[in-house]
């Protein structure tokens, strides 16, 4: 008899415990707010202007891969020996982590970065944006990456885009007449 009573008490405690856990989780779900995210820009990754530039770059550079909205933190890293932050010194990683690059052009065959293209609109005339652009430029220059800043009004034609990227892709920085004789669409890597 005591054995049956013990089993009944055990089952009652288990049932009570499971009910308590279930109710607790249910209450927690009610208390946790729904995550407040939605797609930005009507579900598009780029503005109309950026999309037009992306299409022009892709057409002008068939042997390159064009990536858009790339985080600088994915492209650049802090040089060894510069990672330790001394008091009063800038945190180098912080300077680039939240910045995005409009377009990164890579060689399709090797994946090597050839250049970065920034599409500047009227907002880039604001002092805060100018400072952010200067920091982007300095970081890319320090890493040896060529950056082109264009507006929709100054956007070059396809042949000029290809020539600019081909010139930027030369690691020695020299550009010669021979580069123009290379098959169109092929970046010249030194």
Notes on the protein architecture:
- It is a single chain.
- The chain has six helices and four strands, in the order H-H-E-H-H-E-E-H-E-H.
- Helix 2 (48-60) crosses helix 6.
- The chain folds into two domains: 1-37; 45-181, Trna Endonuclease, Chain: A, domain 1.
- Helix 5 links the parallel strand 3 and strand 4 (147-150).
- The protein has helices spanning 2-31, 48-60, 72-75, 92-97, 127-142, 158-169; strands at 64-71, 100-107, 113-119, 147-150.
- The termini are far apart.
- A four-stranded mixed sheet has the order 1-2-3-4, sandwiched between helices.
- The chain is elongated.
- It has 190 residues and is of the alpha+beta class.
Under the CATH scheme, which class of the largest domain?
Answer: Alpha Beta
- Tally of contiguous helical segments: 6
Q: What percent of the residues sit in helical stretches (DSSP H or I)?
A: 40-55%
Structural class: alpha+beta
In which order are the strands of the major sheet placed? 1-2-3-4
DSSP strand content: 5-15%
SSE succession: HHEHHEEHEH
Rounded to the nearest angstrom, the radius of gyration is 28 Å
How many structural domains are formed by the residues?
Answer: 2
User: How far from one another are the termini?
Assistant: 90 Å
User: Which residues sit in consecutive blocks of at least 5 with pLDDT less than 50?
Assistant: 178-190
The CATH topology label of the largest domain is Trna Endonuclease, Chain: A, domain 1
Gross morphology: elongated
Q: How would you characterize the largest beta sheet?
A: 4 strands, mixed
């Amino acid at each position: 008899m005591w054995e049956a009573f013990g089993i009944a008490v055990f089952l009652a405690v288990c049932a009570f415990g499971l009910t308590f856990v279930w109710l607790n989780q249910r209450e927690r779900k009610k208390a946790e707010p729904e995550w407040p995210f939605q797609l930005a820009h009507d579900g598009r990754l780029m503005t109309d202007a950026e999309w037009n530039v992306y299409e022009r770059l892709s057409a002008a550079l068939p042997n390159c891969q064009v990536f858009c909205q790339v985080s600088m933190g994915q492209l650049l890293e802090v040089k060894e020996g510069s990672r330790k932050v001394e008091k009063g010194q800038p945190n180098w990683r912080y300077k680039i982590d939240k910045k995005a690059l409009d377009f990164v052009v890579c060689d399709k065959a090797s994946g090597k970065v050839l250049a970065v293209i920034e599409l500047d609109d009227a907002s880039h005339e604001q002092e805060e944006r100018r400072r952010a652009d200067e920091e982007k430029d300095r970081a890319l220059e320090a890493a040896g990456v060529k950056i082109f800043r264009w507006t929709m009004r100054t956007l070059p034609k396809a042949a000029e885009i290809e020539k600019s990227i081909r010139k930027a892709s030369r690691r020695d920085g020299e550009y010669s007449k021979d580069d123009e004789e290379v098959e169109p669409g092929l970046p010249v890597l030194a």
